[in-house]
Design brief:
The protein has helices spanning about 5-20, 50-65, 90-95, 160-170, 190-199, and strands spanning about 25-30, 35-45, 75-80, 100-105, 110-120, 125-130, 135-140, 145-150. The protein is an alpha+beta fold. Helix 1 (about 5-20) packs across helix 2 (about 50-65).
Length: about 200
Amino acid sequence: MSTTQSERLRELLEPLVSSQGLDLEEIEVDSVGRKRVLRVVVDSDEGADLDAIADVSRALSAKLDETDAMGQGEYTLEVGTPGAERELGEHRHYVRATGRLVRFQLADGGDVVARILAVDDEGVDVEVPGVKGRRPTTRRLAFADVAKARVQVEFNRKSNADSADSAHDADNTDSSGAGRVEDTDGVEDTEDMKEEEEA
């Protein structure tokens, strides 16, 4: 997509997206054979649910039908939110990524993988995970020192709720270290009684 078309589409669509309480993050037109796809990425500080995406999609579709911004020929409009490994480019992206693990490519050529703790106008405070039993360390990264930043997907991160569950599980251990079965449904089950008898 040419810069001119991109700018024209952004000028046309951004006010509509903003009126829905969302930010227009990205516009991209792809051609696959004779078919064209207009991809619009939206987001907000609270995220965008399916209803919000459907509403903005209808509004954008109606506006595009009124104009010739996409020119002649058919196209498909796809409206979505940023992916899990989104690139951080704007201040608001860093704010939304607070608490997330991010890979920072630094202007000096170095790399840092760290969790964002806080964001201000000048940069970010991050926590660099400890390696081989070492404690995590905090570090300040100025925006001017960051060439690129991308959120990382975490499969084994324990949330605060998971930590609370772990503490709860630890409380449900008898003095021998063996786990106890906790009946959460309030009904004494035959299986529960068998386990207690065998113990």
